[in-house]
Amino acid sequence: MAEKKIMLGNEAIARGAYEAGVKVSAAYPGTPSTEISESIVKYDEVYAEWSPNEKVAMEVAIGASISGVRAMASMKHVGVNVASDPLYTASYTGVGRGLVLVAADDPGLYSSQNEQDTRCVARAAQVPVLEPSDSQEAKDFMKFAFEMSEKYDTPVIVRTTTRLSHSQGMVVLEERQEVPDKPYERNIGKFVMMPGMAKGRHVYVEKRMEAMSEDGGGFFVNRAEYRDTSIGFITSGIPYQYVREVFPEASVLKLGMVNPLPRKMIEEFASKVDKLYIFEELEPVIEEQVKSWGIEAAGKEIFTRQGEYSANMLRRILLSEEVTEAQAAQVPARPPILCPGCPHRSVFSVLKKLKIHAAGDIGCYTLGAVAPLSVIDTTICMGASISSLHGMEMAKGKEYVKNWVAVIGDSTFMHTGVNSLMNTVYNQGTGTVIIVDNSTTGMTGHQDHAATGKTLKGKTVPAISIYHFCKAIGIEHVVEVDAFDLPLLEKVIQEETERDEVSVIITKAPCVLLKGNHFPDVCVPVPEKCKKCGACLKPGCPALTKKEDGSIAIDATMCNGCGLCMQLCPFDAIAKEPK
Amino acid sequence: MITKSIMIVGVGGQGTLLTSRILGGIMQEAGYDVKLSEVHGMAQRGGSVVTFVRYGEMVAEPIVEEGQADVLIAFERLEALRYAHFLKKDGVLIVNDWRIDPITVVTGAAEYPENIIDELGRKHKVYAIDAMKEALALGNSKTFNVIVLGAAAKHMDFAKEDWLKVIEKTVPSKTVEINQKAFLVGYES
Ligand SMILES: Cc1ncc(C[n+]2csc(CCOP(=O)(O)OP(=O)(O)O)c2C)c(N)n1
To answer: Are A405 and A432 in contact (CB under 8 A)?
Structure first.
């Protein structure tokens, strides 16, 4: 019997790529896509890397495909924005061997800065999109994506969502299929996109999309399930499961290919059912096209464009069912916070004390925006801290940014922060940039990057020095400070923000969650010395709580022993004890 | 068999993922179709986290919704209260008698509700266990979640021996013994 395994959607995507004979995989981490690379790296037959950003990852995959092997890139939805420049033109060039981009959308915003829908990008770039509904399909569709890519000479997007990526389900494993490399042939009409060549390719792109739409009715990924025809749904991805759960007797057109749409198949399905619903999360991508063909259907007028769908949503809207009598209790919210012992908290405690505003960036340190730290004022996208601070300065003058800094993580700095910093240097900005260097990509679960000295495959390599990089682009004032050295941090931040020149402060201390990184001690209160002033509580360490009498308790199972609270206590009322 | 639904709720960092792996394992061993859905990313940093587990002959949707959970396993009291309305009328709630203040409470913006367990007991079948105390008695505070799982396992359809076997398969070999012990502490509580 074939081996069956319970697999995360992302593991199944990696498995599908492996079975399809993929030889090169490049990615930049981003929830919910990260585990794809973390799974594929386990297969020795596949070269897998973390690239510094998604544009680079996409280009690595494109190069590998042109050279004649099956290749893939994976990223979260906003990563596709970064990679969109190569993507739009790879749509014109087509491929050598199969090229697949796995894009992970995040309906419900579990871990993202927006709720964009990759299908819209795909339509604009004229690239086909496959969308699986469970782990088994995730694997199967990956394999089909590579075949499609080669047959129609196109990159293929496999779209997943948080729910699919982070759900586990049964998967039947198959053998890897070794695909012979395609011999390379120089072909500038196809691979050099100058205007003359691109004109020709644009014609091809349109033909290819039409051909896929035409052939789509025969693709196994698209399936018309006829049952009771008084009600029919067109749906795809995870929402398909909700339809099956609530309307097991209804007819369903399950689309595995959501761009281009298999028009004939849809028209036929629509003609056979009495009442048609289009059930798709986020944007009305299927709906607007279907309606433009003169087909009557209900869609976004009853189903929201926001958030994640559910079976209960269908029950409420279409069956007018009250799904439960029990009401949710009114309870205090529990938003994510910086961990006990996180070096970012230490840096923020100083910025807060100095009443400095921060143009923020994306990473764990974004949590410095909310109470009680309330230091970060802006967060847009990766790299934007440094460039938006520069914009503020150019708008308002250098005095205006003297009580501002840019705060950016090490991984985010390597991602796109470097470009922004070059801009500040080039255009003579005077802002201060704090790079909170915790030696890892923390938010997404600890991935290495070019400045950590380790690759995805676990190889030790020379780490790119952020310090020397800043020096090399001509910044004179670059200071490295221990993130827990509060007096020095305070002095350095004051000095550098005063300066009429660009400066960089690199605060260093590894993430407390990194393996092998442990403070030897835990912090313990010394009750007889405590004056109940609350200074230790200000940065909001979750291990500390205020007792009824105003003195503090430290939860020994949570404390990581960083000693920030101890440093903040003016009365020596917190001490350290060995763990 | 109709599909059954289990939820595990807790605070990011409490290690809900190990528990869900063991649950997934035992259901697979028993030959069921299984779907698990978990939270990765931002919420794992001390936020409220939920894992859904569904098993049966053929499972369609991967999530558990309001009013559907047969068993709710809560690693912390406030999280039990937050998700109690996901329970079915006759569903059981297993709660670790443990408090972690959310930041909203630490900053004084909100108050941690009193008497959560009594309150919940008025509406649901509730089994509370002080798993942290038991875990410390075992000499490893990290085993508390397997203790809670043991307490919950009594209310599910699988044999004790099968649980122990799955734990052996799932956890790192060095920690098999301590985890099996922890499981039994909960199971026999
Ligand atoms: C374009 C893009 N790619 C990926 C992500 C996902 N993501 C969010 S934060 C982050 C990196 C965080 O690492 P770092 O800057 O080192 O900060 P830390 O979390 O370690 O504090 C990533 C990759 C994103 N939001 N946008």
So the answer is: yes
pLDDT at A1 over 70: no
Judge whether B62 is closer than 8 Å to chain A, CB to CB.
Answer: yes
Of A212 and B107, the structure prediction assigns the larger pLDDT to A212
Which tokens go with A132?
């699986």
- Is residue A335 situated within a structural domain? no
Beta partners for A251? A232
- pTM across the whole model: 0.96
Examine the pLDDT at B184 and tell me if it is beyond 70. Answer: yes
State how far the Cα of B108 lies from the Cα of A538, in Å rounded to an integer: 11
Predicted confidence band at B106 (pLDDT cuts at 50, 70, 90)? confident
If contacts are CB pairs under 8 Å, which of residues 64-93 in chain B contact chain A?
65-67, 78-79, 81-82, 84-85, 87
Q: Which ligand 1 atom is nearest residue A344's CA? A: 21
Mean pLDDT of A259-265: 98
Cβ separation of A332 and B62 shorter than 8 Å? no
A259/A372 same-domain check: no
- Measuring from atom 7 of ligand 1, which residue has the nearest CA? A30
A333 located within any domain: no
Tens of pLDDT, residues A528-558: 999 999 999 999 999 999 888 999 999 988 8
Q: Tell me: do A181 and A287 sit in the same domain.
A: no
Whichever domain contains A283, its CATH number is 3.40.50.920
Residues 6+ apart with CB under 8 A from A447: A29, A34, A37, A38, A50, A411, A440, A441, A456
- What is the CA(A434)–ligand 1 centre distance, in A? 16
CATH code of residue A475: 3.40.50.970
Residue A357 has a pLDDT of 98
Return all residues near B105 (Cβ < 8 A) that are at least 6 apart.
Answer: A332, B111, B112
> Which pLDDT band holds residue B42 (cuts at 50, 70, 90)?
confident
Last residue of a domain, one of A185, A216, A247: A216
Beta bridge partners of A66: none
CATH topology for B4-101+115-187 is Pyruvate-ferredoxin Oxidoreductase; domain 3 (3.40.920)
Q: A433 CA distance to ligand 1 centroid (A)? A: 17
CB neighbour list of residue B139: distance below 8 Å, 6 or more residues apart: none
Ordered by start, the domain boundaries in chain B are 4-101+115-187
Please name which of A84, A230, A5, A364 lies closest in space to residue B12, comparing C-alpha atoms. A364
Closest CA to A479 of A462, A511, A500, A502: A502
Answer whether B39 touches A (CB < 8 Å): yes
Q: Does position A323 have pLDDT exceeding 80, yes or no?
A: no
Please count the other Cβ atoms lying within 10 Å of the Cβ belonging to residue B182.
26
Q: Is residue A515 a part of any domain in this protein?
A: no
Pocket lining: A78 vs ligand 1, CB cutoff 6 Å: yes
A418 and A275 share one domain: no
Determine, yes or no, domain membership for A155: yes
Please give the mean pLDDT across all residues of chain A. 97
Enumerate the residues of chain A whose CB falls inside 8 A of the CB of residue B34: 6, 168-170
